Amino acid sequence: WWPIVSNLLEGKGYVQCLPEYFPFCGPTNQATAMHEPLPVLLFALTALIAGRSLLTAAIVELLLNLSVVLAVFFLARECAGRRAAFVAALLWAIYLPAIKLIPQVSGELTAALAVAVGMFLFLRARRLARTRDWLAAGVIVGLAILARSALLVMAVALAGGLALEWLKSRRARAVSPALTLRPFLIFCVAVALTLLPWFVRNYLVFGR
């Protein structure tokens, strides 16, 4: 992650391709999408403001992990109440794999924060049925994917659940089909628009 950050700050672009992972890489072929853009841009901004200090990067990681503790608290409270929220937040606070990530420059804690916030907003959107909550949930889930592309699976699962809910209500004729299809459409469009700049960049660079 850090070499891409350095190359960005030096005006070389989003480059740093490792032949160990991608055999076609070489001295004249360093364009990459091997690391997702959100953590890279976050650490590039940090380095631009505070200098290229790995200690500063570790402080940012620490702040991200503390933010995950808060996000897990609100997510668990939305699901199961205040007592469960305290237990969940405590479990994350002492979760060793996350603590070990703090000295590193990586995308895992950024992705963890986006996942927790995205799931909280998704659950709140289902409870309150407000357009702005569905938009916010879609954008944050999109940002989670831009931190860890494997989280695209989460977006597909959530959208699939909304689609199934729509089909169920349509068969039962309990509510207007348009009313229950609306959250699915808003969520999917918000995720897609959030990912669009990265898709466009990769198409321009790699032709796919």
Description:
75% of the residues lie in helices and 0% in strands. It is mainly alpha-helical. The chain contains nine helices and no strands. The longest helix is centred in the last third of the chain and has 30 residues, at 177-206.
Output the keywords.
9 helices, mainly alpha, 208 residues
- The helix fraction, in percent, is over 70%
Count of separate DSSP helical elements = 9
Radius of gyration: 19 Å
**pLDDT under 50 segments (min length 5)?**
none
pLDDT average, as an integer? Answer: 90
Can you tell me the overall shape?
globular
Strand/helix succession: HHHHHHHHH
Q: Give the total of beta strands.
A: 0
Calculate the terminal CA-CA distance, rounded to whole Å.
23 Å
The class by helix and strand makeup works out as: mainly alpha
Strand content: under 5%
Biggest pleated sheet: none
Compose a concise summary of this entry.
This protein is mostly helical and 208 residues long. Helices cover 75% and strands 0% of the residues. Helix 3 runs antiparallel to helix 4, helix 6 runs antiparallel to helix 7 and helix 7 (131-147) runs parallel beside helix 9.
